[in-house]
Queue: 2 jobs
Job 1
Amino acid sequence: MKAKIVGLTIVAIVLIAIFMMIDAGGNWDYVLPRRLKKILAIVLTGSVIAFSTLVFQTITNNRILTPSIIGLDSLYMFIQTLVIFALGSTTSLTFMNKNVNFLISVGLMVLFAGLLYKWLFKREGQNIYFLLLIGLIFGTLFNSLSTFLQLLIDPNEFLRVQDKMFASFNNVNTDLLIISFVLVIAVGIYFWRYVKYLDVLSLGRDQAINLGVNYDFVVKRFLIIIAILVSIATALVGPITFLGLLVANVAHQFMKTYQHKHLIVGSALISIIALVGGLLIVERVFTFSTTLSVIVNFIGGVYFIYLLLKENKSW
């Protein structure tokens, strides 16, 4: 198992080194800081999305689900569309810089998830699949509202909204990176006390309860952690729908272990490799004619269909 993690680490380091040094042309003072910000954003976002999806699939006991089903990605797009619809692209740029936009987006997404969890878990007997159903309904609602507002705004302002629809690592604010790293580290410290429960939760709800796990208490904590991390990643670079699904399932197949301490590290490394490799392809092969999220979502979507067909055959 350690050999696999070491191998993934070496591949990730090699790809990062290639990305940092390729076509630098000796302009290190200009090139390195810009590329370093991209790499830091990739490491943070890739690790957070991989971790969130892996934990989410464990507590739902389903490998074709991702946290986006709760509706946080759709809420993010609705927030961005509503701001531009209400203030206009020029006014919104003046009164709401990237830092404020980031904090408002993260705050509203976490607040939505917190209220949703509190309302659904207030009554005894509500299972997590009811939460997923309600989250799916809210996601559809936010998508519909976003589409409606996008039809009403000026076409020039719609271009501002369109920029938010796809994940971008090109213009990540250094201040946002620092804030994001601080928040993720704080959440990671809080998560550490509950990591021991993941291996047991993977056995299922009934087995976990029989083994002495306070299931509802632990799952609520994990859902809050997932909501915070997904909100941070989405607000930092934008939505990447299928990345978590892709890397979490590849990690399960490659690592072949039930121990989450290995799966989390492996999925994070695979996510970093996928994002850095994808960014190299976008910049060097497609010469910026497409975006990284389009490639990731295409590959992830094909893989999602494969998983559905595989599950259908197993039934």
Job 2
Amino acid sequence: MPTRLIRDGLIESDTFDELGLEWEPYYMRLLLIVDDYGRYDATLRALTARMFPLKREIATEQVEAFLKHAEAIGLVRLYEHEGKHYLQIENFRQRIRGRSKWPAPPGVVDGEAQDDDGTAPPQAANRPQNADEEPPRAAPCPPTAGNCPQPAAQDVGEGEAGAGINPTPKKARGGNRAHAAPDLQTIVTGHHREFALSIQRCRPEWGGEITHREWPLVAMSWNVEAGNISPETFDIIRAYLDAEPPNANRYDYPDDRELFIRRFSTVRQKAEHWARRTKWHQRHLAGARKEKEQARNRRLQEEAEALSPEERLRLVNELRELNGKPPLTPEEEAAFRQQ
């Protein structure tokens, strides 16, 4: 497998940060399997097996959710060619060693070979220009490039120079970058609100309102996991979190609500695996049956206490008759009335 050049500016990129902790390992694994053009077969089953050859618990739905999220923020391009699905990592710019095994995206023509650092050969860069020709613009430095020229400090945020993923201008003062707040009215539905309420009940300390930052994560998790949520899913998750062992991994047993929402798919799968391993369903059904039987006995006892002694005595004799037993003797009736 060819060597991949990954710059440390990647970890300071806003777009890579937007990918989220849950999907970053997926992106790094994808970098290792694509060809020199950043392309690969996007058939979910084959892609999942190639990205996670030793982790059978990773489902194709998780890889599909990663690809959709990565495409939405501009890290990956998904396309079709002759009815088949392919992907290409945007701005991959690695050294080209031959033709791509996979077809190019629509409108893309494979160009000349590049150097190790992802730049064009000197003869292409130093080509003479016509007088009326616009000077070539420098291409944005890709996330995996080796040595890229640094943009001017006033044009990009600190730590973003050469990161290669859509640099975001900083404010004139202060270190926070400006992000447009999402319109919650367009992304939050009734299903999302019910989903959020169920999340709030998972841990007692999560009862507070869902924050503006968390709502987009709630909507994304619901859109990905809606088909996997059953009426008892959150019962299993609550039992799984309650059974958290000492020194547990916080990514498997999140104590932070935002982290829980980001990793909902993984936590749900681990909770369902825990339920199968510990036979939670059998214990849960047995407990439900016992509780139902206790409620029935309490109801019968309350109804019996509401009857007069003579009515209770009549019911006892009827039950004995139904079971083939003789009625109570006068001595037994007298003792029954005294109870």
